[in-house]
Amino acid sequence: MAIFIFILIHWYASLFFQSVFHHRYAAHNLFTMSKFWERMFYIGCFFTQGSSYISAYTYGLMHRLHHAHTDKTEDPHSPHNDPNPFMMMWTTRNNYFNLYIGKTDAAEKYKKNLPDWERFDKIAHNYITRFCWIAIYIIIYALLATAWWQWLFLPATIIMGSLQGMAVNWWAHKFGYENYKLTNTSKNILPFDFIFWGEAYHNNHHKHPQNPNNATRWFEWDMGFQTMVFLQKLRVIKIK
């Protein structure tokens, strides 16, 4: 039971930073915050994403390219360019790293107002640090797992951030319902999103990418936006 509590906390904590910090802040600039809090979010990403830590700068850049080229060959993570979700995950990984190391360049218009803490990324974003996190996860499983089959969840723990990105980017362009008819295949995965911090409303988001609230119909509920409202009340962020 304890290992599943750990997995559940890890899932929601990691996804919170990917949804609110990487997606809504870095990629879309939907709210502002001080440099102090921006760096606190960087550190939060590091501790929650662990071995699957990704640069907010590169994520933001890649996601902007996704919006600019949705479902086309230039889309860095589209299910229409790969035969299965695991191949798409690998393609996404390659496109991400090519952007991170500068092998792939992007137009200057996509680089505006991206958060960047290069010195921190050099520490958090390297293979030595990733292997240290993997060792930590193995120790946690050794302490909490009570049956051999529970170790089968370890690979998902190691690639948690990538797995979450794949889940949204694959399913939300393959399955679900549409509130808006668009020129792309974006869909809403769940009518009540209690799993993906509001990222399940992908069709809504592609229709209104600068709306901080991804929910548009009465039964839809965006956990990410509600968290942003709470953080604004605490004066951590200011929603635009």
Automatic annotation (TrEMBL):
- Family of this protein: Belongs to the fatty acid desaturase type 2 family.
What subcellular locations does the record give?
A: Membrane
| Chain ranges passing through the membrane | 41-62, 127-145
Q: How does it sit in the membrane?
A: Multi-pass membrane protein
Q: Cellular component per GO?
A: membrane
Where does the Fatty acid desaturase domain lie? 6-212
Alphabetically, the GO molecular function entries are: oxidoreductase activity, acting on paired donors, with oxidation of a pair of donors resulting in the reduction of molecular oxygen to two molecules of water
Chief site of localization: membrane
Alphabetical GO biological process terms: fatty acid biosynthetic process
Alphabetized, the UniProt keywords read: Fatty acid biosynthesis, Fatty acid metabolism, Iron, Lipid biosynthesis, Lipid metabolism, Membrane, Oxidoreductase, Transmembrane, Transmembrane helix
Give the organism, scientific name: Chryseobacterium arachidis
Q: Which InterPro entries match?
A: Acyl-CoA_DS, FA_desaturase_dom
Signal peptide start and end residues? none
Protein's UniProt name: Stearoyl-CoA desaturase (Delta-9 desaturase)
Q: Which lineage? A: Bacteria, Pseudomonadati, Bacteroidota, Flavobacteriia, Flavobacteriales
Q: Which Pfam families match?
A: FA_desaturase (PF00487)
